[in-house]
């Protein structure tokens, strides 16, 4: 399997190089040259199968020969053994035809663990086979950071720098990033928004000298490995509800568009998906884009679902590439307009192609609180605010197909918002009991590329071991 950049101007890479590259050298995002196809009989066989077995079947074609079957199988088994729930990603019914796909049973109680636990193992494996080290820099609005730190804290091969927007993550999210005690982990509070953090990460990737100097790699969903691992749970959920013998719709609380793009990829691989529904909070750029064809950034507002407080939605670029018939020239032009003017307009055939498969809806703060309260009253089930955004939008758009709303975080990550909405404060699971008492360590930096690069240079050198090659 080979991967191409959405901007058409970077070398094609195999799986291992794509995984370590993160962002393509032309600023684009890698996608597979062709979508592997799963036969309906294979999908039918996923019913009742262990999650790790489905993961192996779905992921093998993307990995190809870069990692042996035995090693891939072992790493998948190890990754999902960190999830205490035997199903890894169980379904819970909350309405006649409405199901929640609980993706928060991993080490940091958010869906990011599903991919991060696997890609940390894959990256370490590839780096150690090559005798190399990597400097991983990631941006987070709260959940990616904690999941990456939990997954890479034991890494012998990577130094990890996580940028989070100061004062804009929940206390639980912040402590998951600042209390690991791991020497190779650096949590950095940036004076700015998540979009600022993400722009800094992309600027570091686009600085070729810096990229080579520190052996830069990334674990945000710009990295194909993240998307790939998230495809699996669309298959497990749909198969247990009757796919391939009936179609299933998915509603996805959306920020950076990675999670819903994984659903699109599952559909391209043969999963009978009916509608893919984008659910946004008040930061509704994607809902506006699907309605008006105009993608226009508009300043981020802080909400009770902070992990979705995003305006520049990286993976939308992958969708534009696919919906335009893989027109890299168009993608390059639109992304240039975005960086120059903060907006672009999708050509008619592209927005029409997107609308044939996607819908979108928005959920404001009052509606988020109402949903949390109503679902608690009706189903005795406590939603986190991100999932509540999804449930609100899903309920507006129920059709004939069963609806699966992705439940992306445990409510205990956002206890204040949940308590304000419904009067109940969710407790952290016992395994996280002492989190709020642990000592925090983090650095603060301005929203300044030079300052950040100096910081990374200094710390990643300190973290690397003498005698080992730096990528
Ligand atoms: C809890 C939660 N829900 C939803 C999202 C949105 O996912 P995506 O960025 O893949 O669209 C995020 C972060 O990205 C998140 O942390
Ligand atoms: N919501 C995310 C933002 C980063 O998204 P990613 O999927 O690109 O890593 C977060 O919680 O950090």
Automatic annotation (TrEMBL):
The keyword Lyase applies. GO terms for molecular function: pyridoxal phosphate binding; threonine synthase activity. CDD domains: Thr-synth_2. GO terms for biological process: threonine biosynthetic process. Its cofactor is pyridoxal 5'-phosphate. Residues 2-80 form the Threonine synthase N-terminal domain. PANTHER family: THREONINE SYNTHASE FAMILY MEMBER, THREONINE SYNTHASE-LIKE 2. This is Threonine synthase.
């Amino acid at each position: 399997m080979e991967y191409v950049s959405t901007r058409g101007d970077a070398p094609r890479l195999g799986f291992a190089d794509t995984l370590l590259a993160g962002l393509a050298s032309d600023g684009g995002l890698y996608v597979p040259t062709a979508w592997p196809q799963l036969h309906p009989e294979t999908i039918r066989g996923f019913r009742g199968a262990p999650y790790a077995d489905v993961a192996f079947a779905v992921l093998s074609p993307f990995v190809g020969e870069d990692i042996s079957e035995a090693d891939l199988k072992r790493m998948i088994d190890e990754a999902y053994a960190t999830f205490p729930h035997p199903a890894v990603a169980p379904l819970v019914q909350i309405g006649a035809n409405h199901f929640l796909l609980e993706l928060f049973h991993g080490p940091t109680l958010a869906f990011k663990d599903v991919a991060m636990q696997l890609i940390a193992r894959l990256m370490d494996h590839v780096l150690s086979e090559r005798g190399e080290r990597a400097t991983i820099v990631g941006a987070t609005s709260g959940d990616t950071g904690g999941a990456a730190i939990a997954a890479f804290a034991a890494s012998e091969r990577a130094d990890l720098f996580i940028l989070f927007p100061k004062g804009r993550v929940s206390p639980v999210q912040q402590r998951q990033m600042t209390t690991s005690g791991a020497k190779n982990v650096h949590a950095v509070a940036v004076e700015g928004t998540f979009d600022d953090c993400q722009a800094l990460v992309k600027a570091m990737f686009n600085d070729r000298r810096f990229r080579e100097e520190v052996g830069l790699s990334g674990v945000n969903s710009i990295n194909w490995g993240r998307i790939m691992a998230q495809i699996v749970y669309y298959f497990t959920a749909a198969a247990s509800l009757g796919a391939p013998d009936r179609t299933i719709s998915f509603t996805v609380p959306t920020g950076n568009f990675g999670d819903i793009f994984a659903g699109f990829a599952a559909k391209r691989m043969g999963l009978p998906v009916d509608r893919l529904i984008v659910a946004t909070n008040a930061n509704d750029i994607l809902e506006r884009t699907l309605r008006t064809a105009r993608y226009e950034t508009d300043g981020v507002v802080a909400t009770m679902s902070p992990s979705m407080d995003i305006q520049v939605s990286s993976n939308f670029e992958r969708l534009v590439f696919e919906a335009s018939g893989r027109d890299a020239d168009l993608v390059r032009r639109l992304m240039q307009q975005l960086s120059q003017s903060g907006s672009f307009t999708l050509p008619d055939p592209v927005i029409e192609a997107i609308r044939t498969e996607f819908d979108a809806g928005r959920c404001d703060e009052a509606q988020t609180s109402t949903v949390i309260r109503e679902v608690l009253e009706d189903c005795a089930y406590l939603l986190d605010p991100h999932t509540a955004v999804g449930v609100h939008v899903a309920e507006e758009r129920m059709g004939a197909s069963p609806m699966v709303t992705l439940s992306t975080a445990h409510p205990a990550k956002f206890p204040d918002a949940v308590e304000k909405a419904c009067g109940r404060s969710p407790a952290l699971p016992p395994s996280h009991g002492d989190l709020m008492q642990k000592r925090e360590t983090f650095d603060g930096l301005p929203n300044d590329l030079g300052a950040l690069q100096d910081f990374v240079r200094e710390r990643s050198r300190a973290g690397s071991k003498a005698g080992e090659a730096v990528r």
